[in-house]
Design brief:
Elements: E1 2-4, H1 7-17, E2 21-26, H2 32-44, E3 47-52, H3 72-81, E4 86-88, H4 92-95, H5 114-117, H6 121-136, E5 140-144, H7 148-160, E6 166-170, H8 190-211, H9 217-228, E7 232-240, E8 254-262, E9 265-272
Parallel strand pairs: 1-4, 2-3, 2-5, 3-4, 5-6
Antiparallel strand pairs: 7-8, 8-9
Bound molecules: adenosine monophosphate.
Adenosine monophosphate binds at residues 26-27, 33-34, 36-37, 143-144, 146-147, 170, 172-173, 180-183.
Length: 273
């Protein structure tokens, strides 16, 4: 397994290989969710590249940039075991420029849901993902459905900027009790973790209501809010796959999303119906 931190060096190395590339961008502290993305990349491509970079431009002031978990050595071992060919470890200094040209999140879809509670977050995400995709130039790039809005905005960016990469969405990997895997779960005390289970429980309850033919969004949201109490809620929203609000669930074209805070940890989860 190769470890490269210079963007130009990686670009040159990958070009020379002349192989199909599966790419998994991450912020490290790798868990089963990331491994699932890597496994899919391994199956479908000749070379697998993982990047590990805690991207400062997607953190707002006061967020957890400084305390975001960093596990470089453990991450290297996980990648090696998962059959990764190259890890890209850029630094803020070697990937960002002074007074640089910026890509912005779209004015509506980038500023609802997660974009409303974290204005500017998605501009930072798109900036780094655009750079990373241009450096790696992968055949396919793998993203988790857990970050549903991020996935949607990346798909839009690829379309709007005529980028030549296939974006592959991967289902959310969960703990045995339903909690969606996240690098931030390590912040949770056992008490907060118990509270956090209300998030997946609310989504399961919604899915059950829908299977019993309750399609009214308001009714479903009210039930979910009852289950989520007393967690601090960022949002509970039911949208179509284009992230537009809907009044009635349409199976095959709906995503239910929750953002809630357990202790001081913001957690995201969703289900696709
Ligand atoms: P992160 O390191 O949190 O930025 O995540 C890197 C990639 O892994 C993103 O595409 C995430 O959506 C994806 N990911 C994170 N958690 C999970 C999970 N539990 N299941 C599947 N994919 C995930």
């Amino acid at each position: 397994m190769k470890i490269i931190s210079e963007p130009q060096e990686l670009k040159a190395y990958l070009k020379e290989q002349n192989k199909t590339i599966g790419y998994v961008p991450t912020m490290g502290a790798l868990h089963e969710g990331h491994i699932e993305l890597i496994k899919n990349a391994r199956k479908e491509n000749e070379l697998v590249v993982v990047s590990i970079f805690v991207n400062p431009t997607q953190f707002l002031k006061g967020e957890d940039l400084d305390k975001y978990p960093r596990r470089d050595e453990a991450d290297k071992k996980i990648c090696e075991l998962a059959g990764v060919d190259v890890i890209f470890f850029p630094t803020k200094e070697n990937i960002y420029f002074e007074d640089e040209v910026k890509i912005e999140a779209p004015e509506v879809r980038g500023y609802v849901l997660e974009g409303a509670t974290r204005p500017g977050h998605f501009s930072g995400v798109l900036r780094i993902v655009m750079k990373l995709l241009n450096i790696v130039n992968p055949t396919r790039a793998y993203f988790g459905k857990k970050d549903a809005q991020q996935l949607n905005l990346i798909q839009l960016m690829v379309r709007h900027y005529y980028m030549d990469v296939e974006i592959v969405p991967i289902n959310t990997v969960r703990e045995a009790d339903g909690l969606a895997r996240s690098s931030r779960n390590i912040y949770l005390t056992s008490e907060q973790r118990k509270e956090a289970l209300k998030i997946s429980a609310s989504l399961y309850a919604a899915s059950k209501m829908i299977s019993k033919k309750e399609f009214d969004v308001q009714t479903i949201k009210e039930e979910m809010l009852k289950i989520l109490e007393p967690l601090e809620i960022g949002y509970v929203e039911i949208v179509n796959r284009e992230f537009k609000p809907i009044n009635d669930v349409e199976v095959g074209n709906t995503i239910i999303l929750v953002e809630a805070v357990a202790g001081t940890t913001r957690l995201l989860d969703n289900i696709w119906l």
